[in-house]
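Appendix B. Raw example, untouched.
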Amino acid sequence: MALMPYYLTDFWLLTGLFAMAAALGAIGLNILSGTTGQLSLGHAFFLAVGAYGYMYFSGDSGRSGTHDISGLGLPPFIALILAVLLAGAVGGLFSPISGRLRGMYLGIATLALVFIGEHVMINAHSVTGGYNGRAAEPMEFFGFTLADEDPYLEVAGVEFAKYERLWYLALALLVIGIIVARNLLRGRPGRALGAVRDSEIAAAVMGVPVARFRSMAFVVSSMYAGLAGVILALVFGRMIPEYFGLALSIDYLAMIVIGGLGSVGGAVAGAVFVTVLPQLFAHYAASLPLVVESGGDGVGPTEAARYLYGAAIVLVLLFSPGGLAGLVRRVRTPRTTPRTPARSRSAHSKEPQGAAS
């Protein structure tokens, strides 16, 4: 992964950046829905909190189009940390509601966050910029900017522009996110979250504070989503409210179902599948049968990609409920022929009992 910027074009680097941002968001949703069993349809809302939180904390006050915008002008790295904490705080504010609701009722409540978020993002012009969105300040470390601006950087004959520089930031954050999630799920908190998913009554009897762990899962999931939103803001350079709609939340649900509920690696694999597939179809639409280029009469690349991973969800539910992660585990684990108990062998043996013994 670290060598990819030396060989990939801007199209593939951009696709990889989208996939890494989606992987972080999918890990967070998998902790909430896959491990803890809390259905959430509002993941896009927390991505928006992270993205616009970063733009507000790092941006300066001024005028964008026909509206005045405000900002704190903080260093971008500090703004990143504050945006992630803000997303976690918003998730914590919603956690009392999640503690009172279960199943589909919780899903509908989180769905309301998406519609509320769209209304706020469109009307809070001073923070979000309204319909036209708001530009994101490039990430900067000690005067070195992760953008196409100065200073010019060339490594081994390859020019490191915006996407090459952001690649290593996103990769480092993804690795940290995977390590943190795996340590969380393999330790006592992960076992407690799994117990809450299987049976809240049994978990409470064993001494697990159910309400606290349900809230913790929501906060951690929101922080992962906020971090993914920051990366998207840095990659796009400008975010508009229309991007953070219900379709984005559905995409994240598709990621964790295809990848495998409760698996960190499965969340990453599902995110890559759902994110990269539309890009591949759009890039090679002219050479694929039954797929026309965008704007033509017929099935476009985006629709074809949605049909394909929609069919993938159905196939996973039918033949591999564990998702891609479960499929990999089955391939890695060889089947062993069960041994016949010694007592059964002696009972069915034609030899005398003494000879058998």
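End of appendix B.
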